[in-house]
Design brief:
CATH topology: Rossmann fold
Distance between the termini: 19 Å
Number of helices: 7
CATH class: Alpha Beta
Domain Dienelactone hydrolase: 17-242
Shape: globular
Protein name: Carboxymethylenebutenolidase
Pfam family, one: DLH
InterPro entries: AB_hydrolase_fold (IPR029058), Dienelactn_hydro (IPR002925), Dienelactone_hydrolase-like (IPR051049)
Structural class: alpha/beta
Organism: Phytopseudomonas punonensis
């Protein structure tokens, strides 16, 4: 695995980003990795590295770039206190609509790399990043082949930028991994979201994990190794089937 850092110019400013590439130097299909609300930190970098080790060029943008310098945070310490007090001001600077507004800049960066295989790309998002990944794929549907959301919350709400409103535009196949008893994605919301996908003819699969919201993140207090490893198996199989290699 090779690790680079770069800065991508977006309509709203300069977005720091990490790029991970396969160790063999041969490149691979591109996947945009949308972080969770606790931001860029060693645990997230490690996950992006693992994805790159599976044969992908992984772009990890810092979607809090509009806020400025922060952290890195230790999730276990953040969750001990008032989560919203710590990360709320950062979350207020981003969202699904802003992620969609940034997607052309991210794609242009990937298009400029000689190690990216294929024109159509993938995206994976965790927690708040799940909705960002879906909204971004809806903004540039012709470029996305696959989107995975792990414990993504608020996927079908009354907000103007709710991810389910992107359903009619999506061309990507979706994999939706939900946590049981997740207040940010209750059964009635899952039903609304999946109905929107079905009505739009989107190819998707969904799976409920016997774990808590955030189970995939190795530095979260709720990390569930067994469920996380199943998630990785599903994710890699999904991208392996949907993304083109040379």
């Amino acid at each position: 695995m090779a690790h680079e850092q770069t800065v991508i110019t977006t309509p709203d400013g300069q977005c720091p980003a990490h790029v991970f590439t396969p160790a063999d130097g041969q490149g691979g299909p591109a996947i945009i990795f949308y972080m969770d609300a606790v931001g860029i930190r060693p645990g997230v970098l490690g996950m992006a590295e693992r994805l790159a080790d599976a044969g992908y060029v992984v772009l990890l943008p810092d979607t809090y770039y509009r806020y400025g310098i922060y952290g890195p945070f230790d999730p276990k310490e953040v969750f001990k206190g008032d989560f919203r007090t710590v990360v709320g001001p950062l979350m207020a600077t981003t969202g699904n609509a802003k992620a969609a507004a940034d997607i052309d800049a991210y794609i242009a960066y990937l298009d400029g790399r000689s190690d990216v295989h294929g024109e159509r790309i993938g995206a994976v998002g965790f927690c708040m990043g799940g909705g960002m990944a879906i909204a971004s794929a809806g903004a540039r549907p012709e470029r996305f082949a696959a989107v995975a959301s792990f414990h993504g919350g608020n996927l079908a709400t009354d907000a103007a930028d709710s991810p389910h409103l992107s359903a009619s535009a999506l061309q990507a196949e979706l994999y939706i991994a939900a946590a049981e008893n997740d207040g940010s994605y209750p059964p009635e919301m899952a039903e609304r979201f999946e109905k929107a996908l079905s009505d739009a003819g989107v190819t998707f699969s969904s799976e409920n994990y016997p774990a808590q919201h955030g189970w995939m993140k190795p530095d979260f207090p709720v990390y569930d190794e067994k469920a996380a490893e199943h998630g990785w198996k599903q994710m890699l199989a999904f991208f392996g089937r949907t993304l083109t290699r040379r």
